[in-house]
Design goal:
Distance between the termini: 26 Å
Number of strands: 11
Strand content: 15-25%
């Protein structure tokens, strides 16, 4: 998931993602043709694409995932990185992330950035990653124990291929003033967020999340009325520092930062299921068993 820095990775900006403790587990064996069985359904196009990208022979693969598809939690990146780690565990993590990015673009026709794959591959427990998407230089940023990451599903699930995602990207790449106002201000917010984490100014984190959502809503126009209502509900709950739409938008989930110890009261006030996440290692942060 991305703490802040939305819709700037494919423009070479800086982002602050983290791998979280919702896992996708993959097992498989060589076969005559590509096949997949998954508890969340689908995935064959992704499997074929990453197999071709890595030059692997056909595999019969079984997937068990804790990452709900279409919710903004990067389920496709988790699947691709898990498969890549099984097929080519010796790969450098950066190379793996780039291969998974190319595979997702090939499988979907959506021109995604590298952030989701990078975090899934190289995330570090107890940290977020400050990633410069123009150079792929990154550094771990400690994430405070006093804060909990909350994810609330809006119920509006989507496939990016069915949204204006590519249109927004084209507009930003063409320099549309409204889209670029979001991009430029969001990059400033990423740096400010990192400073606030280091200085433990937790209220400042909340302000930046609120500003990020407003910019994504008004300037980049990737939110929805349902998501806006959910974010505003979270803003008004005691113990919630801030919240915003997360992921590519057009539905999916919202992210909120909660003071530790407020989890139960926050979920009760939201009146819906809340997933609490902790930072975790990525698939290439340590050695994994090959398929």
């Amino acid at each position: 998931m991305n703490l802040i820095g939305e819709h700037v990775d494919y423009l070479g900006g800086v982002v602050l993602p983290a791998a979280v403790d919702r896992h996708t587990r993959v097992s498989g064996r060589q076969a005559r043709e590509w096949s997949i069985e998954s508890n969340v359904g689908g995935g064959l196009d992704y499997l074929r694409a990453i197999g071709v990208e890595l030059g692997a022979p056909p595999q019969s693969v079984a997937v068990e995932s804790e990452v709900p598809p279409g919710s903004g939690l990067s389920s496709s990146a988790a699947l691709l990185v898990a498969i890549a780690a099984g097929l080519r565990p010796e790969l450098d993590g950066v190379e793996a992330a780039l291969a998974c990015q190319r595979a997702e673009q090939a499988a979907t026709g959506v021109h995604v950035g590298v952030m989701d794959q990078f975090a899934s591959a190289l995330g570090r427990r107890g940290h977020a990653l400050l990633l410069d998407c123009s150079t792929l230089e990154y550094q771990p940023v400690p994430f405070p124990d006093e804060l909990v990451i909350a994810v609330i599903d809006s119920g509006e699930h989507r496939s990016l291929a069915d949204t204006p995602y590519n249109e927004r990207r084209r507009e930003a790449e063409a320099g549309d003033p409204k889209r670029m106002r979001h991009v430029e201000s969001e990059i400033v917010r990423v740096h400010a967020f990192v400073d606030a984490l280091k200085e433990r100014r937790f209220e400042r984190l909340g302000v930046l999340l609120k500003e990020s959502h407003q910019s994504l809503r008004d300037d980049f126009e990737v939110s929805t009325p349902t998501v806006d209502a959910l974010v505003e509900q979270a803003w008004g709950i005691e113990g919630c520092l801030g919240a915003r739409i997360m992921g590519a938008g057009f539905g999916g989930s919202i992210l909120a930062l909660i003071e530790r110890g407020r989890e139960t009261s926050f979920a009760e006030a939201m009146k819906r299921e809340v997933i609490y996440c902790a930072t975790a290692d990525g698939a290439f942060t340590h050695q994994v068993k090959a398929l």
